[in-house]
């Protein structure tokens, strides 16, 4: 009887060792390796020079702010992405046609300053559109490029964020 117990113990120990070795090699095979990404969904980022060229093409032409003595500053407030919080400061602005209107994103998330009353407005973005403003980024447009009158604007990402600028 003792020999059957010894044999059973040896079989169990051998099976445990084989299972451990197999598991070790399988785990090593599927452990992520630094610098190696295997995914159906992965897309490589463009090279730095290509990314800078794409960014330059997507961003509006730089405006020489020194040519403007009259400037109107609008700040996208911190916490503006939370519905119900104050969003633009001031909410309603006035600018003469010789002014430079500048939106600055003081929030910690991306926003836009887009002309129109909201995404459903067929004229949305026709007068001005900042595209995505990262935190601390700014967007400027000469008031002369915006027609005189009252113009609502909003954030395309957070359409409940609205403001108004009057040119004239």
Briefly summarize what is shown.
With 168 residues, the chain is of the alpha/beta class. Helix content is 24%, strand content 22%.
Overall mean pLDDT score? 87
Quaternary organization: single chain
Helix content: 10-25%
Distance between the termini: 105 Å
Number of strands: 8
Helix-strand topology string = HHEEEEEEEE
Strand line-up of the largest beta sheet: 2-1-4-6
Overall, the morphology is rod-shaped
Gyration radius, in Å: 30 Å
Largest sheet: 4 strands, mixed
Number of helices: 2
Runs in which pLDDT lies below 50 for 5 or more consecutive residues are none
**Helix/strand structural class:** alpha/beta
Proportion of β residues? 15-25%
Question: Would you mind describing this structure in some detail?
Answer:
The protein is built from two helices and eight strands. The chain is rod-shaped and about 105 Å long. Strand 7 and strand 8 (162-167) form a beta hairpin. The model has no long low-confidence stretch (mean pLDDT 87). The longest helix has 29 residues, at 2-30. The protein is α/β, with parallel strands linked by helices and 168 residues long. The protein has helices spanning 2-30, 48-58, and strands spanning 71-76, 88-89, 92-95, 100-105, 114-115, 138-142, 149-154, 162-167.
Salient structural properties:
4-stranded mixed β-sheet; 168 residues; rod-shaped
Itemize the secondary structure elements and their pairings.
Layout: H1 2-30, H2 48-58, E1 71-76, E2 88-89, E3 92-95, E4 100-105, E5 114-115, E6 138-142, E7 149-154, E8 162-167
Parallel strand pairs: 1-4, 3-8
Antiparallel strand pairs: 1-2, 4-6, 5-7, 7-8
